[in-house]
Amino acid sequence: MTISIGAMIGSGIFVLPGLAFKIAGPSVVLAFFLAGVVVLPAALSQSEMATAMPEAGGTYLYIDRAMGPLMGTIAGFGVWFSLVFKASFALVGLSAYLEFFVEHPERPVAAVLAVLLIIVNLIGVRQTAGFQAALVSIVLVLLAGFVILGAPNTEPAAFEPFLSEGWKGLFSATAVVFVSYIGVTKVASVAEEVKRPGRNIPLSILTSVGIAMLLYPAVVAVMVGVTPADELAHTETPVLTAATHFLGSAGTYVIAGTAVLALLSMANAGVIASARYPFAMARNSLAPPFLARIGTRSGAPVAGITVTGVVLIILVLFVPLIELAKLASAFQLLVFALVNLAVIAFREGHLDWYQPKFRSPLYPAIQIFGIVASLLLLTQMGIVPLLGAAVFVGAGVIWYRVFGQSRAVKESAARDALRLREDARLVQTSAAAVATGGRKLILVLIRRPTRPSRQHTLFRLAMRLTVAPGGRIHVINFDARTRRMIPTDEDLAQARKLGIEVTTEHYTDEDRRGMVHAFVEREGVDLFIADLPQDLRASRHVTRDLHWLQEHLTCDSAFLRNRAVDNIDRIAVLGTGGPYDPVKVEMADHIARHEDASIRFVHLTSVDAPPGQAESIRAYHEQLGEVLTVPWDDRVSPTNDLIDTLTELSRGANLVVLGAPSHRFHLVADLADRIAEAVDCPALLVHTPTLEKPGPFKRAVEWLIS
User: Fold this and answer.
1) CA of residue 1 relative to chain centroid, distance
2) How far apart are CA 589 and CA 626, in angstroms?
3) Closest CA relative to residue 502, chosen from 449, 545, 557, 441
4) Each residue of 291-333: pLDDT tens digit?
5) Superfamily of domain 426-687
6) What is the three-state SS of 129-196?
7) Do domains 2-407 and 426-687 have the same CATH topology?
8) What is the C-alpha separation between 322 and 96, in angstroms, rounded?
9) What is the pLDDT at residue 34?
């Protein structure tokens, strides 16, 4: 609690009120309260996540695990810079109050104080925590005395008109003073070093918010009530200015000393918390490994504190005071929106390991309010802070893409939630497809030159995929030489036995693909089956026709590649990355059912995939297995060599079923040829034009959490 309060009660009271009064007038009192209202949802969300993940890193850690390493990197950059900015802001403000005691060069003295704080933090968090507790206790007592003694001296007329600058002034001031609440969630960044985190973290965060929401308006109300408007609007030491109007000489010295202690406390808390962010990012491979080093005796992140200190000193020496405050607020508004979104990702992800001991009330309404309110306040910050935030967001994206993407563990609650929902939807669709028993009308295309054995395989597969009885197979033959071959008398007899109607047409027309397309549209074909040439490069005109049909037919299509099918006792269904197309599952089940075969799901992942991904895929296979009508097994393996791994995992299969995405056939054929030759069995390429494709919004979300 002392870390949290000490991080807040500094610039929020001792520097900002004068600047905010110039923007909002007397309604600055309400602005400080409204800022606390906007912070409250993030405080509740942070409290919940901290009890589920009491580890170093705080906000960065939660957003990384909720929405993936890209958003985690942006959040880590944003929180780290906002905390360092605020610590710098506090040290520069501290120099202004020290002027009351002795003249000195403000910026160099602030830099010296920064060095001293870095040394204190390198000693260790226990010693720092004791120092912090003493500072915060003194400041709270003295500020309470300021309110008690100043309240009787306030002038009611000073608050009229209350909204002198209108609602816009009020909301603009609320955005500016938002920096006053930044420290409320800092305690989560040291959660790994806190005893009984399930109790102490939520209690400290929420108690701190409550104290700040009462103390800030009370102290600011005294300032407004005792200080002339012109004087208050042009001071960088508003507490000291107000104290001169109702306290004696001794009182002003006490207030100046209080300000020094408070600002020192806030700067110290900023160093404590901000140094843990580079440490946590390095531990998750999103920053150089040296930042993860900790002191042997102190247990403090030595490298993180040192790097933070260097940046702190640079900001103290060169960046204007007001810009530090605005940039800190802009970053934190964006981060608090992400904090609220992270809780939604965790809750909706239904993850077994996410078991917080404290749960935010009024979920998800309070999180949605926090997101909307934070983004609205962000628009009130002005162009410079917005541009600054945009630059650092861009820097975070570039840093992740260049440095972190190849190293980070790509696992997140949002990704898990999307995957679980997509898996559940596709399992339901697969179950419905399997339950149909087959297709009502299948079109088989025989073209020149298709070998008789492969013609027979095409018709055999069509019979296995046609609903029986009551289904129909229509054969279009563009090869006059095979007029008497397909369907054979044996094929027709088997079809009649199953109750399947067979019709045929023979053509020599040049507009082959146009005729096929017209038939599909006119008759309502459910599935189109054709044979891919053995040598695609030597039969480019055929390949072009089949590619055109694949792209333009409104029905599903399947293309047999490599060779004819003999006996089938095992079918391998291949997947690489995402869930299976339900049509692949349906076809494999129908063929296996009639051939008395089994199914093997073969799924490959990248070698850097997290362990949880393989477990999720196996769980998905279990759900698919429940809808199948035949025995099944699965193989899930990480790989850098697609072909060799498929060869091993698909060994023993007589037919491979894989997806035929919407690319030119020469690209797909290269892959199909390599797979078919490697596994030494026929391959059936399945294309589903009706398969739902992600829209622009979903693709954007998937990119953000990638």
Assistant:
1) 29
2) 12
3) 441
4) 877 776 666 778 888 888 898 898 888 877 667 777 778 888 8
5) HUPs (3.40.50.620)
6) HHHHHHHHHHHHHHHHHHHHHHHHHCCHHHHCCCCCCHHHHHHHHHHHHHHHHHHHHHHHHHHHHCCC
7) no
8) 13
9) 95
Q: How far apart are CA 401 and CA 39, in angstroms?
A: 31
User: CATH number of the domain at 2-407, out of 1.10.287.3510, 2.30.30.60, 3.40.50.300, 1.20.1740.10?
Assistant: 1.20.1740.10
* Integer Rg of the chain from CA: 34
Q: Cα–chain-centroid distance for residue 536?
A: 42
C-alpha distance from residue 293 to each of 188, 374, 408 (Å): 20, 35, 18
Helix (H, G, I), strand (E, B) or coil at 601: strand
Q: Where are the domains of the chain?
A: 2-407, 426-687
Beta bridge partners of 476: 445, 505
Q: What is the pLDDT of residues 186-204, one digit of tens each?
A: 677 667 777 888 888 889 8
Cis before 487? omega within 30 = yes
- Residue pair 186/2 in contact (Cβ under 8 Å)? The answer is no
DSSP 421-462: HHHHHHHHHHHHHHHT-SBSEEEEEE-TT--HHHHHHHHHHH
Residues 384-402 have a mean pLDDT of 81
3-state SS assignment for residue 477: strand
Of residues 357, 443, 304, the one with CA closest to residue 47:
357
Residue 354: partners with Cβ closer than 8 Å, 6 or more residues away: 52, 346, 413
Segment among 56-60, 390-394, 511-515 with least mean pLDDT: 56-60
Q: Is residue 591 within 8 Å of residue 568, measured between CB atoms?
A: yes
CA distance 213 to 575: 54
Residues 129-154: tens digit of each pLDDT: 566 677 778 888 888 899 999 999 99
Backbone angles phi, psi at 254, to 5 degrees: -65, -45
Length of the chain: 706
The DSSP 8-state label assigned to residue 403 in this structure reads: I
d(CA 254, CA 245): 14
CA-based nearest residue to 334, from 367, 365, 368, 374: 374
Please count the other Cβ atoms lying within 10 Å of the Cβ belonging to residue 621: 22
What are the φ/ψ torsions at residue 197 (nearest 5 degrees)? Answer: -60, -30
Whether the pLDDT of residue 534 is over 70: the answer is no
List b or e across 217-229, with b for residues whose CB sees 16 or more CB atoms inside 10 angstroms: bbbbbbbbbbbee
Distance (Å, rounded) from C-alpha 416 to C-alpha 284? 18
Q: 668, 697 in Cβ contact below 8 A?
A: no
The DSSP letter of residue 690 is T
Close Cβ partners of 648 (under 8 Å, ≥ 6 residues apart): none
Rounded CA-CA distance 415/434 in Å is 28
CA dist., res. 590 & res. 245, Å (int): 89
* CA distance linking residue 405 with residue 285, whole number of Å: 9
Mean pLDDT of 489-508: 86
How many angstroms from the chain centroid is the CA of residue 224?
43
Question: What is d(CA 162, CA 156) in angstroms, rounded to the nearest whole number?
Answer: 10
| Cβ 79 vs Cβ 59: under 8 Å | yes
Structure tokens belonging to residue 640: 């850098």
When mean pLDDT is compared across 101-105, 338-342, 358-362, 607-611, the lowest value belongs to 607-611
Look at 111-115, 122-126, 457-461, 691-695 and tell me which has the smallest mean pLDDT.
691-695
**Under DSSP, is residue 586 helix (H, G, I), strand (E, B) or coil?**
helix
Q: Which residues does residue 559 pair with via DSSP β-bridges, in sequence order? A: 530, 685
> Which residue from 6, 9, 52, 36 is spatially nearest to 174, judged by alpha carbons?
36
